[in-house]
Amino acid sequence: MRGTKGKIHFAWWVLLGLSIMIGLARGGINNAGGLFLAPVSQDLGIGIGNLTIYLSISSIVTMLFLPLAGKMMAKYDIRGLLIIAIILQAGSFALFGLMDSVWGWYVLSVPMAFGAIFVTTMAGPVLINRWFKEKNGLAMGIMMAAVGLFGAFIQPLAGSLIGEQGWRQAYIILGVAAIIIVVPVILLFIRKKPEEKGLLPYGMLQVPEGEKQSQPAERGVTMADAKKSLAFYSMLLFLFFMTAIGSFAQHIGPYAMGIGYEVDFAGKVMGAFMVGMLVGALAFGFMSDKIGAKNTAIISMLSGIVAVSLLIFVPGNAAIFTLAIGIFGFVTASIGTLGPLLTSSIFGNKEYSQIYASIGIGLAVAGIVALPGYGYVYDLTGSYTLVLYTIIAMLIINIVLVTLAFKGKKKLEDEGLYN
Length: 419
What we know:
This protein is an all-alpha fold and 419 residues long. The protein contains 17 helices and no strands. This is MFS transporter. Keywords: Membrane, Transmembrane, Transmembrane helix, Transport.
């Protein structure tokens, strides 16, 4: 295989492609969805709880098809899959702009979620693990920081589009733009594995000609052993609660408008949320390398308690509200950054993709429950206060769960299953 001395390793170009793709699909389309809830609800006379059922349907689709997505990514051309996926996700998002009934959101959420599985959930961790043998955490942090960076620009833009041109045109513009930008990026930068470019993964040393290339052993536990462990179920619950916490991002727009702020301000606040995600993704990648994933996760949960407390007790101050949402965005970066890093730290890389896909079911189940649940609480009480107190409780539980997960890892090591 060709060496890469004096050149930028293609792994970094793959990371660039992933960052743009996921930045637009997740930081743009996924996270902008919350800004549409209040205007669509008001215009069509749909309760926010009923409307957000489409997000639960998306979570069910994700839960059912995650294992299939992993197999498809192993078997088929990755670029073809991702092109189809972004068309399904962003195209369905655009078509929301043509809908007049809540059933349109329910139906289109199925292809949208199926596409998003590949684009926003699986592609990043899988390809980064294939392309980076060193600086894996940094690469994951950069990719998730791109979600925050793109979102910091797209969220205010989405808020302005809704305010100026209406929610229908805003859906169409954002969805079509994502397809137009992402498809060429996939073709230029995304490759399934280093061998397709005649390369070794970044950080794997080139051996002198004539010497046998020895593949480094992937340390960790098997899927069969992981599923019997305290660590597995602690991590599954951690991701469940972390996703339930992060799901409140979809309700930031309705929450802001419900306490008297305008839609333009809600868009700007979502920009602060995405800036927080950017900082959090970079910080978590760096901190995980320096102080470990466990300590980083605990710091993240404590930061979340501070942010949500500010939202409860000082919601009427625009500056503090914006700061609190920015900190909340910082914490929400845990889902995409700390989730994969904790999984590899606890279970190793031997059967990482299988274990992460199984634990990832917690992500999907949380969405099924939390997304409409928050909406129904608002519809019934006229306030998100009960939701915010529940989020604080989940943050505290997660501190306990991450501690139990690492105790479970030690038990796996003591039993000789980690090798």
